[in-house]
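Dear all,

This email documents one entry for the complex benchmark we are building for the journal club exercise. For each entry we list the sequence lines for every component of the assembly. Then comes the predicted three-dimensional structure of the complex as a token string, followed by one or two observations. Please use this as the template for your own entries, and keep the labels exactly as they appear.
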Amino acid sequence: MGTMGLALPWKARIASVPRQRETRVEPSEHFAGGPNPAVVNAITEDAALAAGCRAGNLQTYERLYSIHGARMRNLARNLLGNLVDAEDAVQETFLKVQRSIASFRGQSSFITWTYRILINTCYDARRSRLRKKEVANDDSGETERPEPRAPGAHPSLRMALERALATLTKHQRDVFLLYEVEGFRHAEIAGMLEITETASKNTLFQAKKNLRMVLEPPRSNTAGTR
Amino acid sequence: MNETCKDRDRIFEDGTPGEWAALEAHSANCPVCAEELRAWKLLSVAAQEMRDYTKSPAFWPRIESALAEEAVRKSQRTERWSWLSLFPRIPLGWQTAVAGAFVLVLTISAGWLYFHRPDHPEEHDKSLLKSAALENVERAEAVYVQAIDKLAEETKPQLENPVTPLLANYHEKLVVLDSAIADLRAQAGLNPSNAQLRHQLLAMYQEKQHTLEEVLEARKP
């Protein structure tokens, strides 16, 4: 990881709950008039988690799990396509945090750092799985289908989206999952994927445009402008 | 703010809250933008369907157990190296004294080994590098070379002033043979135990001997 010490602005610290979905913009990134108390709390929480993990306190790791475990598991599941690999990746992430917490210098948020480890662990797992497939000479041509999940309000919509996501580039898929599914802000995604915030916004835009084309081919007479 | 259809993609990519509000207002009177906005939002709705934060009660105990095992392994590794941590507790003066004593012992040992090394190492070297058989070969070769040199001395007057083309040819051949012998001797000197080189050298000497004998034959009336 070349830029492990990527500095994030204080307002880019990750909140313990996903971003509110009512609006498609990021209100917290445009506010004025002093620090937001929720963000200040998030920074305090982040520092406390980092300190507890550095001290080897298992209760802190449990707290980290209780706040972020479900989101980490869901992200890993969406990146890897199945729950078994996802849980392995999350467990490996906790172990990597424990092993390398001494090298964490606090230049980015502790949670951003943790999610970056998770994403890299998922990439490694994906690569390892591909290598195993090559060794097994599995050339059946079938693409891996995600495991069935708990039924939601729009199961057919979700399934269509999962199929459409498979047509995106890896980068577009990752940014879409982090922003739209997990509710991270662009500044947070930039820290996790080691890209700029502008690149994150642009990649999301391209991802959504491509998804629209796959899910809903453009009609010939709808391209007009006023 | 008066947004138009042209601004739609830019707002989708990086619009401010004000621009989004203006686009919403514009969409009320623009069916194309209204449709685009609806489709854009639908993707976000569908994305939320991919969020499954159901609890997994067995998962944390599994992670906790792995973390505890890793912590035990880490502490065992630390214990293994903990004897090194005693060293900083010793005062600096004592550390210097111990280091000095260690250097002194090392110097005395090296000096003792130097002054008590074997008296005639070159003899041991010889015995190591050359076997008795090889010495015999070299002695025989030296005698053989001396004999051929004597033969060459006898043919020297004819070869230096060849009176016939045949003698001139013999002279040329002997010059080439001497050159080849010199090369092979140099190689054999670098690698005395190489039997192949010794055989080649012997063949060259034999050829030189035969040529010299032919020169002597040619001298006879």
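Observations: Residues 93 and 117 of chain A are 6 Å apart (CA to CA). The longest helix of chain A spans residues 110-135.
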